[in-house]
């Protein structure tokens, strides 16, 4: 890319991709903004004209708004916590030489290949069903009253299901990170008198810092918008309504596109706030 | 303190016996160098002593106490790795203090020892940097610093200078030698480098395929190599080996003459040959001589600038008292 000529050629070549990407992102964003300032009710009169910030005011003042924000944050936080902690432990386990390593690794990755809808249904019907679920049998076996997972502990159940899905991702990234740790560092620490727990805290964990950051950032992006798991399990009932789900309900169930669009803009703001906090907390790990 | 004794030590990886039964005593305060060709088991031996690998059988004694099953941290040995193995996310200060912190020394004592080590190793200005911000030589010094603060019974070095450039190597070589003189602690040092082995060692251990071929002071090994392998391994350039009729004249299977023990003369010598490559180093000149009729190539080292060129026909005179004789097992004959 040294000469003027090759630089302009490069720009020309990249042009289509840039235009496509811009359109891809800008068009939906602009449409969302456009609708959010309108009263647009497809089945009840269609486009009823500009109404300023009414949709925005209505969306935040609705009694469902703050609970949905907190449900979103609880799910994101809970899943991050579980996947990172278990992911680190699993990665360490999988890094140990053991019999059948290849098979075990594939098994660990498997949940990631299951579609969210399917895995949520499997969990709902096979594990968490209060009558026929495995958990119900287990509880009964110990003489306890089966838990109505999806209604009594709906948020926890969803966190569990989503964690199960995302654990392989975390494990995989953390495993490659662990494998890149220079074994001489561990040996040096061993000779320096650090027992295994201290080697974990002082050598392995700092080494994993960057990988954990990546896991947290990528998962957050996806977790902020989980939908299928809620749709097929609780349908947003029992306090498991996230911001995404609330927007879905406003747009499709109440057929209020304008209100939903305003919610979409709030979702963007929330995502940015979360991103800001995350970068504050873990972003420094990305600097070499 | 710091006597290390190996008795009948063996090590196998699966079915492969890397170290056959081996006995070795490393005396207190000695600077011992392990040399040998690549893959002969030098690192393995060092790791066995350190306790990073379990021995398959035999016994290791440190200062008279059985250390065979003692974990590495309890053997009071410090190791300096080839890759330095510094902790990248800790400052130099924290790196050096790490063993002290693990030993739960109080903070004042930790600081004192770190400052001390840093001043010995000229690291005082770098204490707050990360290892990634240091040069190779400085990293090496941090690794050594981390080893000395523990005041170990012995230091183990695995090719510590092999990642450094030639000039730095010479400097670090002197620093390590000086450190040894000052601390008078036992040191075991693995190297590929002839010069390091010859200049630093009190005692050289020559290994081949896990066997000890010979143990002795550098000059002992140079003057009286026990067999052909040691003769070829110690000394640079390598000793010339001559078989056949010429050796028979000395009633030996093979004779060996070091390059520096052959004089070149203009005209008639004991042997004649044609100069192949001549390497003029200024202080020395190395000639590779062909067509002598007694060996494929003979290497000759002449002191100073000797002006023979490629293709010159010259005479060679070996010094009679510097001819090593070996029998048909390759062992030295008296
Ligand atoms: N973990 C292991 N598993 C199996 N074989 C091993 C292992 N470690 C070393 N070996 C073998 O043991 C032999 C000695 O290895 P070692 O690393 O001690 O050689 P070295 O003398 O240090 O060589 P170099 O000079 O190249 O460092 C080699 O043949 C090597 O292949
Ligand atoms: Mg080695």
Summarize the structure.
The complex is a heterodimer of chains A (288) and B (334). Chain A is mostly helical and 288 residues long.
Helix content of chain B: 25-40%
Shape of chain B: globular
Task: Give the strand tally of chain B.
Answer: 18
Low-confidence stretches of chain A: none
Q: Which chains have the largest interface? A: A-B, 19 and 25 residues
Our count of domains of chain A comes out at: 1
Organism (chain B): Halovulum marinum
GO molecular function (chain B): ABC-type maltose transporter activity; ATP binding; ATP hydrolysis activity
Protein name (chain B): ATP-binding cassette domain-containing protein
InterPro entries (chain B): AAA+_ATPase, ABC_transporter-like_ATP-bd, ABC_transporter-like_CS, ABC_transpr_MalK-like, ABC_transpr_MalK/UgpC-like, Mo/tungstate-bd_C_term_dom, NA-bd_OB-fold, P-loop_NTPase
In terms of topology, how is this protein built?
The complex is a heterodimer of chains A (288) and B (334).
Chain A: H1 4-36, E1 38-41, E2 46-50, H2 54-61, H3 65-95, H4 101-109, H5 116-127, H6 134-141, H7 149-152, H8 154-179, H9 183-191, H10 196-223, H11 228-233, H12 243-253, H13 257-282
Antiparallel strand pairs in A: 1-2
Helix pairs in contact in A: 1-13, 2-13, 3-8, 3-10, 3-12, 5-8, 8-10, 9-10, 10-13, 12-13
Chain B: E1 4-13, E2 16-26, E3 31-35, H1 42-50, E4 57-62, E5 65-66, E6 77-80, H2 92-102, H3 107-120, H4 136-148, E7 154-158, H5 166-183, E8 186-190, H6 194-200, E9 203-208, E10 211-216, H7 218-223, H8 228-233, E11 240-243, H9 245-248, E12 254-257, E13 262-265, E14 271-280, E15 284-290, E16 297-303, E17 313-318, E18 324-326
Parallel strand pairs in B: 3-8, 3-9, 6-7, 7-8
Antiparallel strand pairs in B: 1-2, 1-4, 4-5, 9-10, 11-12, 12-18, 13-17, 14-15, 14-17, 15-16
Helix pairs in contact in B: 2-3, 2-4
Bound molecules: adenosine-5'-triphosphate and magnesium ion.
């Amino acid at each position: 890319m040294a000469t003027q000529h090759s630089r302009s050629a490069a720009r020309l070549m990249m042009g289509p991709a840039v235009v496509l990407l811009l359109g891809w992102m800008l068009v939906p964003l602009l449409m969302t903004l456009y609708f959010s300032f309108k009263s647009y009710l497809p089945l009840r009169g269609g486009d009823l004209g500009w109404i300023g910030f009414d949709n925005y005011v209505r969306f935040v003042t609705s009694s469902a708004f703050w609970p949905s924000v907190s449900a979103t944050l609880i799910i994101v936080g809970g899943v991050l916590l579980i996947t990172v902690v278990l992911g680190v432990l699993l990665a360490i386990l999988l890094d140990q030489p053991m019999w059948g390593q290849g098979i075990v690794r594939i098994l660990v990755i498997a949940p990631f290949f299951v579609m969210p809808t399917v895995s949520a249904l499997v969990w709902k019907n096979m594990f968490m069903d209060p009558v026929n679920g495995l958990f119900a049998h287990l509880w009964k076996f110990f003489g306890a009253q089966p838990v109505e997972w999806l209604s009594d502990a709906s948020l926890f159940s969803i966190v569990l299901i989503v964690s199960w899905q995302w654990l392989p991702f975390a494990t995989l990234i953390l495993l490659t990170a662990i494998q890149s740790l220079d074994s001489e560092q561990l040996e040096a620490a061993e000779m320096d008198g650090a027992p295994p727990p201290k080697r974990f805290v002082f050598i392995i964990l700092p080494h994993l810092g960057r990988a954990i950051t990546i896991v947290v950032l990528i998962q957050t992006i996806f977790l902020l918008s989980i939908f299928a798991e809620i749709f097929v399990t609780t349908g947003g009932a029992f306090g498991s309504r996230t911001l995404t789900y609330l927007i879905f309900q406003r747009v499709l169930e109440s057929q209020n596109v304008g209100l939903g669009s305003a919610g979409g803009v709030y979702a963007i703001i929330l995502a940015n706030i979360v991103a800001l906090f995350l970068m504050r907390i873990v972003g420094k790990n990305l600097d070499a | 303190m710091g006597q290390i004794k190996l008795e009948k030590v063996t090590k196998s990886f699966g079915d492969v016996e890397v170290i056959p039964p081996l006995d070795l005593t490393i005396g207190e305060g000695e600077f011992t160098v392990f040399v040998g060709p690549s893959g002969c088991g030098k690192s393995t031996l060092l790791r066995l002593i350190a306790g990073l690998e379990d021995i398959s059988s035999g016994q290791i004694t440190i200062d008279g106490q059985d250390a065979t099953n003692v974990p590495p941290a309890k053997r009071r040995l410090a190791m300096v790795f080839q890759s330095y193995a510094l902790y990248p996310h800790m400052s130099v200060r924290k790196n050096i203090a790490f063993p002290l912190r693990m030993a739960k020394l109080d903070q004042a004592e930790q600081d004192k020892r770190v400052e001390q080590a840093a001043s010995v190793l000229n690291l005082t200005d770098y204490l707050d940097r990360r290892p990634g911000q240091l040069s190779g030589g400085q990293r090496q010094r941090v690794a050594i610093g981390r080893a000395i603060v523990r005041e170990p019974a012995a230091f183990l070095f695995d090719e510590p200078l092999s990642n450094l450039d030639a000039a730095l190597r010479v400097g670090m070589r002197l620093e390590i030698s000086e450190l040894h003189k000052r601390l008078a602690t036992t040191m075991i040092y693995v190297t590929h480098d002839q010069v390091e082995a010859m200049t630093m060692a009190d005692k050289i251990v020559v290994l081949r395929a896990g066997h000890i071929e010979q143990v002795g002071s550098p000059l002992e090994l140079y003057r009286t190599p026990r067999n052909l392998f040691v003769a070829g391994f110690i000394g640079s350039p390598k000793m010339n080996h001559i078989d056949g009729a010429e050796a028979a004249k000395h009633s030996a299977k093979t004779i060996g003459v070091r390059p520096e023990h052959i004089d070149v003369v203009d005209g008639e010598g004991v042997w004649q040959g044609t100069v192949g490559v001549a390497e003029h180093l200024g202080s020395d000149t190395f000639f590779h001589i062909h067509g002598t009729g007694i060996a494929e190539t003979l290497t000759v080292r002449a002191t100073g600038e000797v002006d023979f060129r490629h293709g010159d026909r010259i005479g060679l005179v070996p010094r009679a008292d510097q001819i090593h004789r070996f029998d048909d097992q390759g062992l030295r004959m008296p």
